Every structure is written in structure tokens, then in C-alpha cells.
Amino acid sequence: MAALLEEGTDLSCVFYEQHTSLQWHPGMLLDMTDLQVPFLADLVTFANPKSAFTFLNYLHEQERLYAFYFFNRFDIPRKEYNAYLQWVAQKLSNCQFGTRIDDVEYDSNKQHYIVTCIDTQTEAVHYVTSNQIVLGTGSTPLVPSIH
């Protein structure tokens, strides 16, 4: 969602992640294991094949496109897909890593949400207001109560 919104809209958005870097399936990046979907099922290709965030563009920028093509096997190793996701995450201006969301409160007078953000390194607190929010619960759902 962050990659698609970065290039494709005029929406003002930010995505917060409490980890300091992208963590895709930690502990599951085993040698000799491949992604179970084709490389075209990357973050953006079906929605926007011209995106700078496609897996093919990642390979091109890493100077590995020809090697991937001539390998003649279009499965992506899980470690390679993780590297691709980290490459995209580093390019996104709308992703804020190392920020924990501590509270979400709805202000009915102003009709917006007040989000309490905490820097996981310094514990500094700042607040963000938004008309809309999207929650990513992770593998184990944890939906905070909204006051």
C-alpha cells in the first residue's frame, strides 16, 4: 500500500512501523527456499507495471536483470524477496520505521483521530492527526481500542 500510494496519488499518508527496519518473515529466510508466487506478484506490478518499485526494476538497479533472465527459472529465493522489500522500504518517503503507536483517540469535535507516536530509540513522543487510519495487525491480531 505504501509503495502504491507513494507514486500513484496525491494523498498525504504515513505508515508507521515499530521495528527499526523492514522485517519480512524473520526466521523463515532459509537457504534454498523460494517464494511460492511468481515474481510478477511483487508489491506493485499488477496495479502499476510502470512503477519504480517493481521487482524487475529492483533487479535492474542491482545490475542483476540479465542474470535473473538467463537463469531461466523465475522463482524468487525468499532471501532475494526480502532484499527486494528492504530496497523498496528504503526508497519510500511515507514509511517511518522505529515508531511505535501507543494510542489512537478520536476527537469528535474536530472529527479526526489523534495518534500518539513514540520513537522506539529515544522514547520521544509526538502526535499526528488524521481523518482516516488503517491498522495492520500482523500475524497475531491485536486491535487497540479507540477512545
Automatic annotation (TrEMBL):
Required cofactor(s): FAD
InterPro entries, A to Z: FAD/NAD-bd_sf, Lys/Orn_oxygenase
Organism superkingdom: Bacteria
Short name of one Pfam family: Lys_Orn_oxgnase
EC code(s) of this entry: 1.14.13.59
Pathway terms, separated by semicolons: Siderophore biosynthesis
Catalysed reactions listed for this entry: L-lysine + NADPH + O2 = N(6)-hydroxy-L-lysine + NADP(+) + H2O
Enzyme's top EC category: oxidoreductase
Keywords associated with the record: FAD, Flavoprotein, NADP, Oxidoreductase
SUPFAM superfamilies linked to this entry: FAD/NAD(P)-binding domain
PANTHER family: L-ORNITHINE N(5)-MONOOXYGENASE, MONOOXYGENASE
Family per similarity comment: Belongs to the lysine N(6)-hydroxylase/L-ornithine N(5)-oxygenase family.
Record-given protein name: L-lysine N6-monooxygenase MbtG
Species in which this protein is naturally found: Alkalicoccobacillus plakortidis
